[in-house]
Write a structure and sequence with these properties.
- The structure holds 2 protein chains of 2 kinds.
- Chain A is an all-beta fold.
- Chain A is built from no helices and 11 strands.
- In chain A, strands 2, 4, 5, 6, 9, 10 and 11 form a 7-stranded mixed β-sheet that branches. In chain A, strands 1-3-8-7 form a 4-stranded antiparallel β-sheet, with no helix packed on it.
- Helix content of chain B is 0%, strand content 53%.
- Chain B is built from no helices and 11 strands.
- The mean pLDDT of chain B is 93.
- The chains are: A mainly beta, B mainly beta.
Chain lengths: 117, 113
Amino acid sequence: DTEVTQTPKHLVMGMTNKKSLKCEQHMGHRAMYWYKQKAKKPPELMFVYSYEKLSINESVPSRFSPECPNSSLLNLHLHALQPEDSALYLCASSQDLSGSGSYNEQFFGPGTRLTVL
Amino acid sequence: QKEVEQNSGPLSVPEGAIASLNCTYSDRGSQSFFWYRQYSGKSPELIMSIYSNGDKEDGRFTAQLNKASQYVSLLIRDSQPSDSATYLCAVNQPYSSASKIIFGSGTRLSIRP
């Protein structure tokens, strides 16, 4: 059983819709991540939060807007997406952002399969 | 040069044999190395972490790290059909202000009965 949960499991949205993806971790971790994964490709990092502050934004388009309400929750707000944004969106968490060792171990949630029509 | 390289496969191994998966990385400053297993349509699952040169064993899995050669491998003993998946090698990116891991493109492993 994963201790990182994501909702919804599947989402279909039009290009003019606004929707949100939600992630919750129950491990007491202080770092949380959003990744995007296209078919047959590795996960691509989008955002990193550390102690509820945005630490890394990998030049993600502004139609993706992250939010970290508290150390257990991470949201990804979606607006005016394009069909090419269809992908599996993964949330992950790690103990913190220390430079080495087990603190770096990232645990993934089950993902949200997003389809943009 | 890609930062983390893996053979994309597919790697086909008979049931009961040893599967050997390899990964090379470019940054000598990397200190943390991970293997994730990903079944089709599912999310990556962390199966091994290694931080020091040498071998680390966990059940049927052994991770091997050679920092001088910038090489990390995963051995799966007594391969089972349930081991058929894509295996992602991941390496931490050093010197950044935050923890960031770089994934290889993954190796597809197929265990044939």
